[in-house]
Amino acid sequence: MPFFDTFQTVAPMPQAVFDRYGDQVGPEISAMWREHGVGFVDDGFLKVIDPIWFEDEGFVFLRSGVPIFLTALCDTIMYIPETGTFTAMKLRFGAMDIVTEPGEPLTEVLRRFGDRGYREQVLESRHFTQAAAVHGVPDLDEGFNYVPMLALGGPHRAANLDRGHAAVSQSLLLQVDTPELRAYSPSMVEPRPDN
Fold it and tell me: Where does the source fall among the domains of life (predicted)?
């Protein structure tokens, strides 16, 4: 049974990913990888990525987690095996948010990532739709960046998003601002207003 109602598969998940991470992520995430492979969830804001490729390309992630998703706003979303939760590294804000509750069934959690309301509230995807209408949906290795960066005083507006290579953007954002834990549960996430 599909985890996401709409999914555009780009490639099957390589067997090496199951060999390396299968024991850490458990049967639910492995089933999602088998069902959908690598590709775009729904409108393309969320991308299921190959974590080995992700690491090899120099993307930013927590060593205690397994990178599962990359967003079109250059956020890394990781599964943390120790706690059974997902953490979003929202480098655009210099923040890390725990975006699921401990103990939630993983099948339900994964399906929630397919819900637009969840993505808008908890993953703060609001500007993506406007930017994608102008610039198109970023490829797997791309994302939208605020120009200038929010950490350098750039305005938080969809009109200030530009398309670029996500790993390069993440590296620059990490050099400007070290992410700090901001929200300990999805209910604590307060989407940032425009300025």
Answer: Bacteria
How far apart (Å, rounded) are the C-alpha atoms in residues 26 and 140?
24
pLDDT at 2: 83
Burial 67-101 (b: 16+ CB within 10 A, else e): bbbbbbbbbbbbbbbeebbbbbbbbbbbbbbbbbe
Q: Check residue 48 and give its pLDDT.
A: 98
As a whole number, mean pLDDT of residues 147-173 equals 95
Total length of the chain: 195
Residues of the chain above pLDDT 70, percent: 99
Residue 177 to residue 88: CA distance in whole angstroms:
16
Would you tell me how many other CB atoms lie within 10 Å of the CB of residue 47? 25
User: Per-residue pLDDT for 34 more than 90?
Assistant: yes
- The ranges assigned to domains in the chain are 7-182
d(CA 108, CA 44): 20
Q: Which residue has the tokens 């954002």?
A: 173
- To which residue do tokens 């999914």 refer? 7
- Which one-letter DSSP state was computed for residue 19? H
User: What is the model's pLDDT at position 28?
Assistant: 97
H-assigned helices in the chain? 15-36, 51-56, 106-112, 116-121, 126-135, 166-176
